[in-house]
Amino acid sequence: MDFNFENELKDKIALVTGGSKGAGKAIADRLLKAGATVIITARNKPEDENNGTHFIAADLSKPDGTQKVVNEILEKFGHLDILINNMGGSETPGGGFAVLSDSDWEGSFQTNLLAPVRLDRGFLPGMIERHEGVIIHIASIQAKLPLYDSTLPYAAAKAALANYSKSLSNEVAPKGVRVLTVSPGWIMTDASTRMMERIARSSGGTAEEAANSVMDALGGIPFGRAAWPEEVAELVGFLVSPRAAYLTGSEYVIDGGTIPTI
Mind telling me which InterPro entries this protein's record contains (predicted)? Predict the structure, then answer.
């Protein structure tokens, strides 16, 4: 896919967490094409180190990791205009509530809820001072369609993130900062493949059977396929642009029609 974004994000500084692969990489590339200065974070260096982004190695599931990112960006760039809280994921075993330990629950909430909360807290004061800024929280349709047998802590954390995002938007919208939630459904990424492999190992089946079971649990995807990362990135690119200047406090679902209710 190739679009002409006419440099609409020129002079904007953006951070995309988990921006080295999957949907995060697609979002970072989309913002770069729109003219933004883009910083990405991940635990490990991206395979493509020459794509024009600035990289900060950090484990955002730890408070020290988020503080490192905040400090480095403010020291080097002075401020942040756009924050995409994209990092997230599930590494807990399948098998329902009985196989989940406190550590499983705590790890999911650190990664999927508390990391965005800490980054927001680090960058919001500057946005409020300048009376401008955009924060996007990447949640998940699992906030509404939890998969109890495979990703229960992840789903609960994403539901908390969506609730927090709405509340935060009400607080900071009068101060010039827009806060939005994007909730994707199934996205065709390497992380999705790894999750299917973990479920398959837990269940004793194949990755294909695991994928079919997840699809069945979701009720199917009316569009007939998973989303491409670039499709999620295009929605995010619009939401952070001046064309979406009146949008705040809303959740945007991009799931191919998976959620069966309005």
Answer: NAD(P)-bd_dom_sf (IPR036291), Sc_DH/Rdtase_CS (IPR020904), SDR (IPR050259), SDR_fam (IPR002347)
